[in-house]
Amino acid sequence: MSLYQGLLQRAAEGRPIRVGLIGAGKFGSMYLSQIPRTPGVHLVGIADVNPVAARANLTRVGWEPSRLAATSFAEALKTGQTFITERVEALLACPEIEIVVECTGHPIAAVDHILAAFASGKDVVNVTVEADAFCGPLLATRAKASGRIYSLAYGDQPAMICDLVDWARTCGFPVVAAGRGHKWLPHFAQSTPDTVWDNWGLSPAQAERGGLNPKMFNSFLDGSKPSIESTAVANATGLGVPSNGLQYPPASIEDIPYVTRPIAEGGCLERKGMVEVISSLERDGRSIPYEIRMGVWVTVEGETEYIRNCFEEYKAHTDPSGRYFTLYKRWHLIGLEVGQSVASVALRREPTGCPIAWNADVAATAKRDLREGETLDGEGGYKVWGKLTPAKESAEKSFLPLGLAHGIRLVRPVRAGQALTWADVERVPSNALRLREEMVRECAPGGLG
Q1: Whole-angstrom distance, CA of residue 103 vs CA of residue 128
Q2: What angle do CA 100, 102, 108 make, to 5 degrees?
């Protein structure tokens, strides 16, 4: 049965999938805009630190006020309405909610919410991919131990890449490489919230008009977000990681099968079976026509002459050898597509991406020379960016994960371009630190145990 037919059946039987949403910001609002148009789904409640803003977002995306009239979870369950609260623990305590969509964008809070959801007997669709990069393998083991489903969110690029990888392997194709697109030049790694708009292609006035967060956008531009998302993909698919971080080879869509080949065959890969990100800019800054900046892709190998002949007969665009073929989606619709994950988890008991190994990590890396006594400002800020790193190297060298590089003090200087280690910072006891230490202890690099 298709997911849509399953949703129609749940609606006809009067037992919709009961969902709770944590965080009603931009991503959450995009999902909210689709819920009234999706059969068989009841958003029982929303937990947000600013309920007034959450209501305003619901109005903005087209919800009728009558849908928000519930004054409690019990009333929402009786009437089919939605209850809004600022208390996450109250939402998690509602036994009828089956699935929690974690959408705060705050990695430390997200981990707490996800673990609490498992303890409350709820499945989780995790939109906060920063939390997955920080300790996704731990979350996967905790979900399994509690009999729950933990899933990346479809619509965001990691889950969509996982879907392409699954397609390839299910069809019998070896995966040579998989990843996303990005606007990248090497000096973007030093970008700060002060320089982000020029590099991004917006004026400060345009950014202010749109209410855009420079730190958040800078986390995309400086390479942190591509590293975070590539980490999620590597851990969820078992694909390998470049030894010196993402290479960002520039390529048009037509040229992806050319560049995502092993180095020995004219491409950029150290070996077959790796994650990578394709740049939409040439190294001199020129824009590439028909690029994959907002999309995802997978490159597969035709291992036999017969398969390669089929590529040719059906006009599949390959590299010059006819051996490597790339399938792609040029766009992703972010929160508008989260319903795919909700339906998959509820109806098929299948995640749309979940860690199966600890292959990758994101190491906090100095943007400039850092002085002893400075306080780190985390993802997208002025001091560090996130570099994709093999998990084995990260564990052996005790690299500081980007997810914990916020609000802690340096105890010695670090040179620009150097990955920070735990010896460089003041280790302040916290729940976040405990969780990270548990993951390093329990999830061996290359596996989950």
Answers
A1: 6
A2: 130
Mean pLDDT of the chain: 95
Which of 167, 185, 173 lies closest to 329, judged by CA? 167
- Summarize pLDDT for 207-238 with one digit per residue, the tens: 887 667 899 889 999 999 999 999 999 999 99
Q: Given this model, what pLDDT does residue 431 score?
A: 79
Pairing of strands 324-329, 406-409: unpaired
Segment 256-315, tens digit of pLDDT: 999 999 999 999 999 999 999 999 999 999 999 999 999 999 999 999 999 999 999 999
Q: State the Cα angle at 41 between 36 and 45, rounded to 5°.
A: 85
**Which residue's structure tokens are 């305003």?**
56
Cβ–Cβ under 8 Å, residues 361 and 235: no
Token pair, residue 141, equals 């083991």
Domain coordinates in residue numbering, the chain: 3-156+336-348, 158-184+223-331, 360-442
pTM above 0.70, yes or no: yes
For residue 358, the 8-state DSSP code is: B
- Residue 134: both structure tokens together: 């920080």
Q: Name, in order, each residue with C-beta under 8 angstroms of 230's C-beta and a sequence gap of 6 or more.
A: 179, 180, 241, 246, 275, 276, 277, 360, 388
Picking from 172, 145, 180, 369, the residue whose alpha carbon sits closest to that of residue 256 is: 180
**CATH class of the domain at 3-156+336-348:** alpha beta
Phi, psi values for residue 324, rounded to 5°: -110, 130
Overall CATH class of domain 360-442? alpha beta
Axis-axis angle for helices 129-146, 107-119 (nearest 10): 20
Distances in Å between the Cα of 408 and the Cα atoms of 381, 383, 402, 434 are 14, 12, 12, 15
